[in-house]
């Protein structure tokens, strides 16, 4: 996954755990696509200060994800749900066997247990 997209997702999930200033700067950088210069000007700080805030914020977001794994779990659930949808669409095409139905059932149980 592209780093910018990953950071945007992490910011959405864990952003409220950062300081208000960190969250705003990360949001401007990753979601609003502002440059370091634009963020620095808007916040009346130097580009280097913006870069430092972004690096510290990124480290914090990675730390939260490393411990909580929320993004990983959500992305994994989306993957499994899409697989289940594909399998269920096979029912419409009458390609579903008892074995495939059993696999769907196991996938759903796994999602529920997570």
Topology (elements, then pairings):
Layout (H helix, E strand, L loop, with lengths): L2 H12 L5 H12 L4 H8 L3 H22 L1 H23 L5 H16 L1
Helix pairs in contact: 1-2, 1-4, 2-4, 3-4, 5-6
Gyration radius, rounded: 20 Å
Order of helices and strands: HHHHHH
Head-to-tail CA distance between termini: 22 Å
The averaged pLDDT comes out at 91
Q: What is the count of distinct domains?
A: 2
Give me the count of strands. 0
CATH architectural label of the largest domain:
Orthogonal Bundle
Q: What is the CATH homology-level superfamily of the largest domain? A: Winged helix-like DNA-binding domain superfamily/Winged helix DNA-binding domain
Treating each run of at least 4 consecutive H or I residues as one helix, how many helices? 6
Text of the CATH class of the largest domain: Mainly Alpha
Shape: elongated
Largest sheet, if any? none
- Unreliable residue stretches: none
Structural class, judged by helices and strands? Answer: mainly alpha
CATH topology of the largest domain: Arc Repressor Mutant, subunit A
What is the percentage of strand-forming residues?
A: under 5%
Amount of helix: over 70%
